[in-house]
Amino acid sequence: MIGERVHRWFSKADDDDDRSLLTLMGRRGISRREFLKFCTATAATLALPVDKVAAIANALETTARPPVIWLEFQDCAGCTEAFLRASRPTAAEIVLDVLSVDYHETIMAAAGKQAEEAKEATIAKGGHLVVVEGSIPTNDSGVYCCIGGHSAMEILKKATENAVAVIAVGTCASFGGLPAAAPNFTGAVGVDRLIKHIPVVNLPGCPVNVVNLTATIVHYLTFGSLPALDDYGRPLFAYGKRIHDNCERRAHFDAGQFVEEWGDEGHRQGWCLYKMGCKGPETYHNCPTVRYNDGTNWPIGAGHGCIGCSEPNFWDRMAPFYERLPDVPGFGVESNVDKIGLGLAAVTAVGVAAHAVGSAVRKKPAAPSQEQ
Q1: Contact 93/30 with Cβ under 8 angstroms?
Q2: DSSP helix/strand/coil, 112
Q3: Segment (H or E) for 167
Q4: Are the C-beta atoms of 225 and 245 separated by less than 8 Å?
Q5: How many CB atoms within 10 Å of residue 344?
Q6: Residues of 120-153 as b/e, b for ≥16 C-beta within 10 angstroms?
Q7: Using a CB cutoff of 8 Å and minimum separation of 24, what contacts does 290-297 make?
Q8: H/E/C letters for each residue in 218-245?
Q9: Cα dihedral angle (192, 195, 201, 207), rounded to 10 degrees?
Q10: Cα-flanking dihedrals φ and ψ of residue 148, to 5°?
Q11: Angle between helix 53-62 and helix 32-45 axes, rounded to 10 deg
């Protein structure tokens, strides 16, 4: 299935002079209904009002697909795997036909000289987007990641010539990720440490959620600008709230109901995982609302605490992953979790008992009247 998609994406059957999504949809049998579902879902991801759906649809139908150069450096290809399996809401054709992926060394059909010529042609023409996966080593002139005799630093700088923006997908490209963990022998860094002449958007996560990548591209096509970013270069629509704020287990935290050990009754009942090391209170990401695998589930939903992978230096800051955070600035979780949480649990128990008594009183039948 994936092989068929890749073949179609890089097929020369499409007319290079007609890159509009509307034409491509007709060729591939995608209905208008499916297309509008995609536009509506993307507007929801971007936290846009319903009246913006029409603007998104118009932009995707009429705007030429932006050319993309996708580079991989110090990575595990996990973000590429997520990219290939994008199927929400109407399969990967819609997600990827928004773009014209001119170069992607992992999945492109071309190789060697032909592949490099395609990349050079895109750079020369300009106006392209550069998507980067994986961190960039800087120690010893970048010798720790070389492709075709050129370091990752050289390749990145060349690819961004005449580009409009860079999108760093995954935590490694955004902040250095696992390769940058102490002692960081290779001097691994994120893209924005090296690229200053054009905007850089960070989409951290391990792997990136392809819904956020698509939404970022659609925002650019619809409004002619990149989405609003936080201090770490992350789009606010995806990283504007803590996981703890939207977590499906938040009510259990407030009630003082915590998993004490893996497999206990609380774990089976879906209670809060904070005591088991969940880093949701200090992690900003829309995982609880967007989720993964077509919105099927996410780590906390599957019973595993968040490890904070979308935060800078998460491997060093959040470890050990199965121990409670010593402190969360401005939140006070550690002081509240045992005291206020247990107090709330006691109050809740009293409230439940009172509710039960009240219900019993309301349900008690009235005494029969006595005849005079």
Answers
A1: yes
A2: helix
A3: strand 165-169
A4: no
A5: 17
A6: eebbeeeebbbbbbbbbbbeeebebbeeeeebbb
A7: 290/45, 290/209, 290/211, 290/212, 290/238, 292/209, 294/87, 294/88, 294/89, 295/88
A8: HHHHHHCCCCCECCCCCEHHHHCCEHHH
A9: -60
A10: 60, 30
A11: 120
Low-confidence ranges of the chain (pLDDT < 50): 1-18, 89-92, 94-95, 340-341, 343-372
Residue type at position 290:
V
Whether omega for the bond prior to residue 199 falls within 30 degrees of 0, making it cis, is: no
Q: At what angle do helices 210-223 and 32-45 cross, to 10 degrees?
A: 100
Distance CA(372)–CA(370), nearest Å, equals 6
CA distance 167 to 269: 39
Per-residue pLDDT of 107-125, as tens digits, reads: 887 788 888 998 999 999 9
Sign of CA dihedral 327, 331, 334, 335: positive
**Interatomic CA distance for residues 8 and 27, integer angstroms:** 11
- The 10s digit of each residue's pLDDT in 210-252 is 889 888 988 888 888 899 999 999 999 999 999 999 999 999 9
pTM of the full structure: 0.78
- In this prediction, residue 242 carries a pLDDT of 93
Contact (Cβ atoms closer than 8 angstroms) between residue 221 and residue 63: yes
